[in-house]
Amino acid sequence: MSDSLWGNTSTEFFYELTPELVLHSMDQLGFKTNGRLMTLNSMENRVYDLEIDNHEEYEIPNTFIVTKFYRPGRWSVDQITDEHQFLFDLQEADIPVIAPLRINGKSVFSDPKTNLHFCVFPKMGGRAPDELTLVDANRLGSLLARVHNIGATKTAEHRLTFTAENFIKKNAQMILAENIMPLHLEKKYQALTEELFPIINESIKDLPLFRIHGDCHMGNIIQRHDTFTMLDFDDFVTGPAIQDLWLLAPRNDQEGLQIREQLLEGYFQFRDINPSDFNLLECMRTMRLIHYQAWLTKRRNDPTFQHHFGDIEAESRWERHLHDLQEQRELLTQSKKTDYFDY
Protein backbone atom coordinates (compact mmCIF):
# COMPACT_ATOMS: atom_id res chain seq x y z
CA MET A 1 0.00 0.00 0.00
CA SER A 2 1.38 3.39 -0.95
CA ASP A 3 2.09 5.91 1.79
CA SER A 4 3.08 8.70 -0.58
CA LEU A 5 0.43 11.26 -1.42
CA TRP A 6 2.39 13.19 -4.02
CA GLY A 7 4.58 10.51 -5.60
CA ASN A 8 7.97 9.07 -4.84
CA THR A 9 9.92 11.12 -7.38
CA SER A 10 10.09 14.78 -8.24
CA THR A 11 7.07 15.95 -10.18
CA GLU A 12 8.06 17.33 -13.55
CA PHE A 13 5.89 19.47 -15.75
CA PHE A 14 4.40 18.96 -19.19
CA TYR A 15 6.57 21.34 -21.19
CA GLU A 16 7.38 18.72 -23.83
CA LEU A 17 3.76 17.67 -24.33
CA THR A 18 2.53 19.32 -27.53
CA PRO A 19 -0.57 18.68 -29.68
CA GLU A 20 1.69 17.05 -32.27
CA LEU A 21 3.08 14.65 -29.68
CA VAL A 22 -0.41 13.80 -28.38
CA LEU A 23 -1.65 13.03 -31.89
CA HIS A 24 1.48 10.99 -32.63
CA SER A 25 0.95 8.95 -29.47
CA MET A 26 -2.61 8.16 -30.53
CA ASP A 27 -1.50 7.23 -34.05
CA GLN A 28 1.08 4.85 -32.60
CA LEU A 29 -1.71 3.00 -30.79
CA GLY A 30 -3.56 2.50 -34.06
CA PHE A 31 -6.05 5.36 -33.94
CA LYS A 32 -6.42 7.28 -37.18
CA THR A 33 -6.45 10.87 -35.97
CA ASN A 34 -7.55 13.68 -38.27
CA GLY A 35 -5.90 16.60 -36.49
CA ARG A 36 -8.92 17.77 -34.49
CA LEU A 37 -7.80 18.17 -30.87
CA MET A 38 -9.01 20.26 -27.96
CA THR A 39 -7.44 20.65 -24.53
CA LEU A 40 -9.89 19.93 -21.72
CA ASN A 41 -9.94 21.54 -18.31
CA SER A 42 -7.71 19.60 -15.92
CA MET A 43 -5.31 20.95 -13.33
CA GLU A 44 -3.54 17.79 -12.18
CA ASN A 45 -3.13 15.94 -15.48
CA ARG A 46 -3.32 16.87 -19.16
CA VAL A 47 -6.51 15.76 -20.89
CA TYR A 48 -7.41 16.07 -24.57
CA ASP A 49 -10.52 15.54 -26.66
CA LEU A 50 -9.71 14.39 -30.19
CA GLU A 51 -11.43 12.92 -33.21
CA ILE A 52 -10.53 9.68 -34.97
CA ASP A 53 -11.67 8.18 -38.26
CA ASN A 54 -11.68 4.49 -37.25
CA HIS A 55 -13.82 4.39 -34.12
CA GLU A 56 -15.70 1.29 -35.33
CA GLU A 57 -12.55 -0.78 -34.88
CA TYR A 58 -12.61 -0.01 -31.14
CA GLU A 59 -16.34 -0.49 -30.61
CA ILE A 60 -16.78 3.01 -29.22
CA PRO A 61 -20.00 4.97 -29.68
CA ASN A 62 -18.74 7.97 -31.68
CA THR A 63 -15.76 9.42 -33.47
CA PHE A 64 -14.26 11.13 -30.42
CA ILE A 65 -11.92 9.82 -27.75
CA VAL A 66 -10.42 11.42 -24.65
CA THR A 67 -6.80 10.81 -23.69
CA LYS A 68 -5.32 11.54 -20.28
CA PHE A 69 -1.60 12.08 -19.78
CA TYR A 70 -0.77 11.57 -16.11
CA ARG A 71 1.34 14.07 -14.20
CA PRO A 72 4.81 12.50 -14.10
CA GLY A 73 6.24 11.51 -10.77
CA ARG A 74 2.90 11.20 -9.01
CA TRP A 75 1.37 7.78 -9.77
CA SER A 76 3.36 4.70 -10.76
CA VAL A 77 2.14 2.32 -13.45
CA ASP A 78 1.02 -0.04 -10.66
CA GLN A 79 -1.03 2.71 -9.03
CA ILE A 80 -2.64 3.68 -12.33
CA THR A 81 -3.35 0.01 -13.01
CA ASP A 82 -5.17 -0.19 -9.66
CA GLU A 83 -7.32 2.76 -10.76
CA HIS A 84 -8.14 1.09 -14.06
CA GLN A 85 -8.90 -2.25 -12.42
CA PHE A 86 -11.44 -0.55 -10.17
CA LEU A 87 -13.10 0.98 -13.23
CA PHE A 88 -13.13 -2.35 -15.07
CA ASP A 89 -14.69 -4.03 -12.02
CA LEU A 90 -17.40 -1.37 -11.92
CA GLN A 91 -18.01 -1.57 -15.64
CA GLU A 92 -18.41 -5.35 -15.49
CA ALA A 93 -21.03 -4.88 -12.77
CA ASP A 94 -23.00 -2.54 -15.09
CA ILE A 95 -22.29 0.48 -12.91
CA PRO A 96 -22.19 3.70 -14.98
CA VAL A 97 -18.54 4.75 -15.13
CA ILE A 98 -16.22 5.46 -18.04
CA ALA A 99 -13.46 2.86 -18.10
CA PRO A 100 -10.35 3.25 -20.25
CA LEU A 101 -9.98 1.38 -23.51
CA ARG A 102 -7.86 -1.77 -23.54
CA ILE A 103 -5.64 -2.14 -26.58
CA ASN A 104 -3.82 -5.46 -26.97
CA GLY A 105 -4.69 -6.19 -23.35
CA LYS A 106 -3.21 -2.95 -21.98
CA SER A 107 -4.83 0.22 -20.65
CA VAL A 108 -1.73 2.13 -19.47
CA PHE A 109 0.70 3.33 -22.12
CA SER A 110 3.96 5.31 -22.04
CA ASP A 111 5.27 7.83 -24.53
CA PRO A 112 8.90 6.93 -25.28
CA LYS A 113 9.98 10.55 -25.80
CA THR A 114 8.66 12.07 -22.58
CA ASN A 115 8.10 8.90 -20.48
CA LEU A 116 4.64 10.23 -19.68
CA HIS A 117 2.04 7.58 -18.84
CA PHE A 118 -1.33 7.94 -20.56
CA CYS A 119 -4.60 6.18 -21.24
CA VAL A 120 -7.54 6.57 -23.62
CA PHE A 121 -11.26 6.76 -22.86
CA PRO A 122 -14.33 6.68 -25.09
CA LYS A 123 -16.06 10.05 -25.06
CA MET A 124 -19.46 9.98 -23.37
CA GLY A 125 -22.15 12.64 -23.54
CA GLY A 126 -23.76 14.26 -20.52
CA ARG A 127 -23.64 17.36 -18.35
CA ALA A 128 -22.82 18.19 -14.79
CA PRO A 129 -26.03 18.55 -12.74
CA ASP A 130 -26.89 22.18 -12.01
CA GLU A 131 -28.08 21.30 -8.52
CA LEU A 132 -28.85 18.20 -6.52
CA THR A 133 -32.57 17.60 -6.03
CA LEU A 134 -33.88 15.20 -3.40
CA VAL A 135 -34.73 12.68 -6.10
CA ASP A 136 -31.22 13.02 -7.54
CA ALA A 137 -29.70 12.56 -4.08
CA ASN A 138 -31.61 9.32 -3.63
CA ARG A 139 -30.38 8.02 -6.98
CA LEU A 140 -26.80 9.04 -6.24
CA GLY A 141 -26.97 7.33 -2.86
CA SER A 142 -27.96 4.10 -4.60
CA LEU A 143 -25.20 4.53 -7.16
CA LEU A 144 -22.56 5.10 -4.49
CA ALA A 145 -23.69 2.04 -2.55
CA ARG A 146 -23.27 -0.08 -5.68
CA VAL A 147 -19.82 1.43 -6.26
CA HIS A 148 -18.85 0.63 -2.69
CA ASN A 149 -20.17 -2.92 -2.92
CA ILE A 150 -17.78 -3.52 -5.81
CA GLY A 151 -15.03 -1.53 -4.11
CA ALA A 152 -15.17 -3.85 -1.12
CA THR A 153 -14.65 -7.00 -3.21
CA LYS A 154 -10.93 -6.41 -3.85
CA THR A 155 -8.01 -4.50 -2.42
CA ALA A 156 -5.91 -1.84 -4.13
CA GLU A 157 -2.42 -2.91 -3.19
CA HIS A 158 -0.61 0.16 -4.47
CA ARG A 159 -3.04 2.99 -3.71
CA LEU A 160 -3.02 5.40 -0.82
CA THR A 161 -5.02 4.79 2.36
CA PHE A 162 -7.27 7.60 3.57
CA THR A 163 -5.92 8.19 7.09
CA ALA A 164 -5.20 11.17 9.30
CA GLU A 165 -1.52 10.19 9.11
CA ASN A 166 -1.47 10.60 5.34
CA PHE A 167 -3.88 13.49 4.88
CA ILE A 168 -3.09 15.65 7.92
CA LYS A 169 0.32 14.86 9.36
CA LYS A 170 2.20 14.20 6.12
CA ASN A 171 0.52 17.05 4.26
CA ALA A 172 1.31 19.50 7.06
CA GLN A 173 4.90 18.29 7.22
CA MET A 174 5.26 18.76 3.48
CA ILE A 175 3.84 22.28 3.60
CA LEU A 176 6.25 23.28 6.35
CA ALA A 177 9.20 21.68 4.55
CA GLU A 178 8.46 23.71 1.41
CA ASN A 179 9.14 26.99 3.25
CA ILE A 180 6.27 28.69 1.46
CA MET A 181 4.46 30.03 4.51
CA PRO A 182 5.37 33.36 6.14
CA LEU A 183 7.80 32.59 8.94
CA HIS A 184 5.70 34.14 11.70
CA LEU A 185 2.82 31.76 10.89
CA GLU A 186 4.78 28.51 10.79
CA LYS A 187 4.76 27.76 14.53
CA LYS A 188 1.04 28.49 14.74
CA TYR A 189 0.38 26.20 11.80
CA GLN A 190 2.51 23.41 13.18
CA ALA A 191 0.87 23.62 16.61
CA LEU A 192 -2.61 23.73 15.14
CA THR A 193 -2.18 20.74 12.83
CA GLU A 194 -0.50 18.78 15.62
CA GLU A 195 -3.54 19.51 17.78
CA LEU A 196 -5.99 18.49 15.07
CA PHE A 197 -4.24 15.24 14.16
CA PRO A 198 -5.02 13.15 17.28
CA ILE A 199 -8.60 14.41 17.43
CA ILE A 200 -9.34 13.33 13.87
CA ASN A 201 -7.20 10.20 14.00
CA GLU A 202 -9.13 8.94 17.03
CA SER A 203 -12.48 9.81 15.45
CA ILE A 204 -11.97 7.96 12.15
CA LYS A 205 -9.54 5.15 13.03
CA ASP A 206 -12.18 2.40 13.27
CA LEU A 207 -14.07 3.17 10.07
CA PRO A 208 -14.18 0.28 7.57
CA LEU A 209 -11.88 0.96 4.62
CA PHE A 210 -12.21 -0.24 1.02
CA ARG A 211 -11.87 1.11 -2.52
CA ILE A 212 -13.80 4.39 -2.88
CA HIS A 213 -13.90 7.21 -5.42
CA GLY A 214 -12.18 9.58 -2.99
CA ASP A 215 -13.14 12.86 -4.69
CA CYS A 216 -16.87 12.38 -5.27
CA HIS A 217 -18.08 15.97 -5.65
CA MET A 218 -20.67 17.18 -8.14
CA GLY A 219 -18.01 18.17 -10.67
CA ASN A 220 -17.07 14.51 -11.05
CA ILE A 221 -20.58 13.39 -12.00
CA ILE A 222 -22.38 13.80 -15.31
CA GLN A 223 -26.06 13.24 -15.98
CA ARG A 224 -27.76 12.07 -19.14
CA HIS A 225 -31.52 11.83 -18.85
CA ASP A 226 -32.08 9.98 -15.54
CA THR A 227 -28.68 8.28 -15.45
CA PHE A 228 -25.70 9.51 -13.45
CA THR A 229 -22.17 8.54 -14.47
CA MET A 230 -19.18 8.87 -12.15
CA LEU A 231 -16.00 10.39 -13.60
CA ASP A 232 -12.35 10.87 -12.72
CA PHE A 233 -11.14 8.15 -10.36
CA ASP A 234 -7.65 9.66 -10.40
CA ASP A 235 -7.76 10.29 -6.63
CA PHE A 236 -9.34 7.00 -5.64
CA VAL A 237 -8.12 5.67 -2.30
CA THR A 238 -8.74 2.92 0.18
CA GLY A 239 -11.03 4.83 2.51
CA PRO A 240 -14.36 5.05 4.36
CA ALA A 241 -17.75 5.31 2.67
CA ILE A 242 -18.50 8.63 4.34
CA GLN A 243 -15.67 10.33 2.42
CA ASP A 244 -17.65 9.84 -0.80
CA LEU A 245 -21.03 10.68 0.70
CA TRP A 246 -20.28 13.93 2.50
CA LEU A 247 -18.81 15.60 -0.59
CA LEU A 248 -22.24 15.43 -2.21
CA ALA A 249 -23.88 17.13 0.79
CA PRO A 250 -21.26 19.30 2.53
CA ARG A 251 -23.62 21.99 3.87
CA ASN A 252 -25.04 21.96 7.38
CA ASP A 253 -28.22 23.91 6.65
CA GLN A 254 -31.69 22.40 6.36
CA GLU A 255 -31.30 21.69 2.66
CA GLY A 256 -28.00 19.93 3.32
CA LEU A 257 -29.62 17.72 5.95
CA GLN A 258 -32.44 16.81 3.58
CA ILE A 259 -29.95 15.89 0.86
CA ARG A 260 -28.07 13.66 3.33
CA GLU A 261 -31.25 11.90 4.36
CA GLN A 262 -32.02 11.11 0.73
CA LEU A 263 -28.45 10.01 0.02
CA LEU A 264 -28.70 7.59 2.92
CA GLU A 265 -32.14 6.36 1.92
CA GLY A 266 -30.82 5.52 -1.53
CA TYR A 267 -27.62 4.04 -0.10
CA PHE A 268 -29.55 1.70 2.21
CA GLN A 269 -31.24 0.12 -0.80
CA PHE A 270 -27.96 -1.62 -1.67
CA ARG A 271 -25.59 -1.33 1.30
CA ASP A 272 -25.57 -0.65 5.05
CA ILE A 273 -23.84 2.29 6.67
CA ASN A 274 -24.04 3.83 10.11
CA PRO A 275 -25.92 7.15 9.59
CA SER A 276 -24.00 8.68 12.47
CA ASP A 277 -20.88 8.54 10.28
CA PHE A 278 -22.14 11.87 8.95
CA ASN A 279 -21.20 13.28 12.34
CA LEU A 280 -17.60 12.91 11.13
CA LEU A 281 -18.23 15.47 8.42
CA GLU A 282 -16.09 18.16 10.08
CA CYS A 283 -13.21 15.68 10.40
CA MET A 284 -13.47 15.04 6.68
CA ARG A 285 -13.76 18.74 5.90
CA THR A 286 -10.63 19.50 7.94
CA MET A 287 -8.65 16.81 6.14
CA ARG A 288 -9.78 18.21 2.79
CA LEU A 289 -8.81 21.78 3.72
CA ILE A 290 -5.28 20.70 4.59
CA HIS A 291 -5.02 18.43 1.57
CA TYR A 292 -6.16 21.21 -0.79
CA GLN A 293 -3.60 23.65 0.57
CA ALA A 294 -0.90 20.99 0.28
CA TRP A 295 -1.92 20.33 -3.32
CA LEU A 296 -1.57 24.01 -4.19
CA THR A 297 1.78 24.17 -2.40
CA LYS A 298 3.19 21.15 -4.20
CA ARG A 299 2.07 22.38 -7.63
CA ARG A 300 2.84 26.08 -7.18
CA ASN A 301 5.60 26.16 -9.83
CA ASP A 302 3.37 24.71 -12.55
CA PRO A 303 2.44 27.58 -14.91
CA THR A 304 -1.19 26.39 -14.96
CA PHE A 305 -1.41 26.72 -11.19
CA GLN A 306 0.37 30.07 -11.22
CA HIS A 307 -2.25 31.36 -13.63
CA HIS A 308 -5.17 30.29 -11.42
CA PHE A 309 -3.59 30.61 -7.96
CA GLY A 310 -1.13 33.45 -8.21
CA ASP A 311 -1.56 34.28 -4.51
CA ILE A 312 -0.34 30.92 -3.19
CA GLU A 313 2.57 32.56 -1.37
CA ALA A 314 0.58 35.57 -0.19
CA GLU A 315 0.35 36.09 3.55
CA SER A 316 -3.39 36.71 3.29
CA ARG A 317 -4.00 33.22 1.83
CA TRP A 318 -2.15 31.54 4.68
CA GLU A 319 -3.90 33.67 7.26
CA ARG A 320 -7.26 32.59 5.79
CA HIS A 321 -6.14 28.97 5.85
CA LEU A 322 -5.15 29.23 9.50
CA HIS A 323 -8.44 30.93 10.31
CA ASP A 324 -10.37 28.12 8.60
CA LEU A 325 -8.47 25.48 10.56
CA GLN A 326 -9.04 27.35 13.82
CA GLU A 327 -12.77 27.32 13.09
CA GLN A 328 -12.58 23.59 12.42
CA ARG A 329 -10.78 23.07 15.72
CA GLU A 330 -13.60 24.84 17.53
CA LEU A 331 -16.18 22.64 15.82
CA LEU A 332 -14.22 19.50 16.66
CA THR A 333 -13.39 20.34 20.27
CA GLN A 334 -16.45 22.19 21.52
CA SER A 335 -17.95 20.56 24.63
CA LYS A 336 -21.11 19.50 22.80
CA LYS A 337 -20.36 18.54 19.23
CA THR A 338 -23.07 18.96 16.63
CA ASP A 339 -24.84 15.70 15.79
CA TYR A 340 -26.22 15.76 12.28
CA PHE A 341 -27.87 12.37 12.78
CA ASP A 342 -28.84 11.16 16.23
CA TYR A 343 -29.38 7.40 15.99
Features:
Transferase(Phosphotransferase), domain 1; 343 residues; two-stranded antiparallel ribbon; 10 helices; alpha+beta; 9 strands
What does this structure look like?
The protein has helices at residues 19-29, 77-92, 134-151, 164-177, 183-204, 241-246, 254-267, 281-298, 303-308, 315-333; strands spanning 33-40, 46-52, 64-69, 109-110, 117-122, 210-212, 221-224, 227-230, 237-239. By secondary structure, the protein is of the alpha+beta class. The protein folds into 2 domains: 19-122, 2-Layer Sandwich (Phosphorylase Kinase, domain 1); 134-333, Transferase(Phosphotransferase), domain 1, CATH 1.10.510.10. A 5-stranded antiparallel sheet has the order 1-2-3-5-4, with helices on one face. A two-stranded antiparallel sheet has the order 6-9. A two-stranded antiparallel sheet has the order 7-8. A hairpin with a 5-residue loop joins strand 1 and strand 2. The two termini are 34 Å apart.
